[in-house]
Amino acid sequence: MPIFINHLIHSRRKTVALIIQRDGSLTVRAPLRMSEDSLQEFVRDHAEWIRKKQAQAKAAPPPPKRSYSKGESFTYLGKKYPMTILAHQRPGISFTGDEFRLAHASLPKARQTFIRWYKTQARMVISERVAFLANKNTFTYQKIRISSARTRWGSCSTNGTLSFTWRLVMAPAKVIDYVVVHELTHTQIRNHSPKFWHRVAEIMPEYKQYVSWLKKNGRLLTLGDD
Q1: 214 and 146 share a domain?
Q2: Which of 87, 89, 119, 136 has CA atoms 20 to 30 A from the CA of 201?
């Protein structure tokens, strides 16, 4: 039975990326000049892997829906913190280090309020780690972009722009560092060759445990209704 491609995205990249979404659908990112025959051959060659990952995605229980009620927990830097609702608070949301505080007036738009907060934190946290790790390991990059990607933790464009999803700021600090190192390494090595992984291992010898963490827990880095 042939593999069905749900979403095909052509861009100025040199390699093909196969992305299995949470619902099991397949997104393929391919170089602009890649022919249809070559693309289909690549997918056929990876059919066993695709079917395995699709089965895993469909079997995984969905993240719980959010109610945005008092006592509900939200994750930040790998830890869960309870949320309380205050009658009078400005801004709409704040974080004390022990709990999230949401203004009652923000309840109708609680999800958007949390997303804005996560995006702000992601830009601050990830920018600091990129700058530190790039300087320490002699990488250069153009700029940092915070995206709303659901399954890609990070990416590196041909011009050196690094993109990271705001959801990454829910992960533990070491996992964030791994994704940062991964994308910084792509500024010098565009593929996932043995040379690429050797360079990642030089910087972060224990990187495989963070890859495993993302595979196991990545689907939980969400607000549950996105």
Answers
A1: yes
A2: 119
**Nearest 5°: CA angle at 182, between 178 and 188?**
145
Domain co-membership, 45 together with 145: no
Q: How many domains does the chain have?
A: 2
pTM of the model: 0.81
162 HSE (CA, 13 A, CB side): 26
How would you label 194-205 residue by residue, b for 16+ Cβ within 10 Å and e otherwise? eebeebbeebbe
Radius of gyration of the chain (CA): 19
Contact predicate 59/36, CB 8 Å: no
Element (H, E) at 7: strand 7-11
